[in-house]
What does this fold into?
Amino acid sequence: MSGLTEQGAAAVGTAAARTKGLRKVYRGTVAVDNVDLEVPTGAVLGMLGPNGSGKTTTIRMLLGLVTPTAGEVELLGQKMPDGAAKALPEVGALVEGPGFYPFLSGRENLLRFGAAEPLLATADIPNAVGTAIERVGLTAAAGRRFRGYSLGMKQRLGLAAALLVPRKFVVLDEPTNGLDPAGTREIRTIIADLHAAGTTVLVSSHLLAEVEATCTHVAVLNQGTVVAQGELSALLEAGSASLLVTTPEATAAVDALRDQRVPARPTPEGVRVDLTATTAPAVVEVLVRAGVPVYEVRKQRTGLEDLFARLTEASSAADLAELDTLITEEAR
Ligand SMILES: Nc1ncnc2c1ncn2[C@@H]1O[C@H](COP(=O)(O)OP(=O)(O)OP(=O)(O)O)[C@@H](O)[C@H]1O
It folds into this structure.
């Protein structure tokens, strides 16, 4: 990745957000380590990772809510935290625990948020609040006190606050947390609408199917580091392909491949060969050389779930480094 641009540099062709060597240590716990994240302008980037992998900490550092122990953050062309006053009005964020007043209604809370928006004229606040409430499906509950809200309603109100004014960049930390299936579908629609309007979106999620359905790009975090990032289609192509080989001599095929350090295992459908570190022609060559009859060879796309599992469960650092290099190279 190229170095960070100077503060105020033109954002054309640059990332909406970018981190370099980002690190956060909490009293001996390394929450985030050496994260180089790039959110391309106009992308919907899904940040995936198991519990505790550093997603929320990374997002909080990106928004200037947490001070990094080391590293740099650039947000909408502004170096953070110095450029916060310029960048943040263009950024809508749904992060854990937005400061809502429990004794005010959802609408009253949003009116207060509206008053604090530098890009919203006072006369436009009631309209903006009404539109945001409708957009997140909170109309029926808008007059009720916040303290009586369900988790899903709180999420919707947080989202409404993030969308009060048109943004260049929207950051959503686990936006479907606490939402029912209808709410989850609505989030998907809102993200698609934002994307269509040219807004860059960063969304963290555990829901792989959601990410696969809504995102153009993915960054996978594990134990505080980015283990893969790039275009979703390229990552899937590079990271999760396997080969299904039909042969009457499955055991001989598996032995021959493992002899060449190619991961392979027998399955009821045939011998499944991991293509992470090899290619289909190379697999066929190994089999033919070993005298194994090959009836059929098919490439399989196993989806984001498989890729995610392999990236986050790889047993050794060497496995991860190998997989990361391969995926990053292919995704470029
Ligand atoms: N304020 C804090 N003080 C101490 N440790 C923290 C703090 N915030 C996060 N951590 C630790 O940093 C690590 C990363 O946490 P983080 O919340 O960023 O992960 P996450 O990927 O968002 O997890 P989840 O999916 O469970 O929300 C964890 O080990 C967590 O316990």
Observations:
- The first strand starts at residue 15 and ends at 26.
- The radius of gyration is 23 Å.
- The first helix runs from residue 55 to 62.
